[in-house]
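Q: Sequence in, structure out?
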Amino acid sequence: DEENVGRAVKYLSAAQRVYCFGQGGSLVIAMEAWARFITAAPQFQCIEDSHMQAMAAALSTPDDVILFFSYSGATKDVLRPARRRGAKIILVTHFAKSPAAAMADVTLLCGSKEGPLQSGSVAAKMGLLFIIDVLFNEYCRTNPALTEANREATEPFQQSCCKHRTKGM
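A: Exactly. Output:
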């Protein structure tokens, strides 16, 4: 939904901090979102531990955004304190009528279906990764000066890491 993507990017662009959260297999996707965005914007953070996620959510402010990945949308406990504190919540899920969606300011839907025995299927992960890519590209398009300056600042490090990795091959 183009309108929801636009709203999500508006929230991400205005945020003081963006927390990328997920539980279980969705945490891997949250880490991927953080890894993608940190190349262009320093306010993105990924917190892996669920207790630390809950504490960050409980201390969030109206200037913060929770970018939350939950395929089922059933995981919602970490969102309650963020909602009470006024943080914006962007949910990436498959189910528009899920408990987490009821708490979100923006819900972005991934299209791939998975059965109960396919938890974390590659098709579902690809749908979630596609949404990250759309958000990232739109964020960069909307904030060109900021993202270009940050990408230029990180480029020497990224190049030295790549050179270091290929030396041993």
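The two ends are 43 Å apart (CA to CA).
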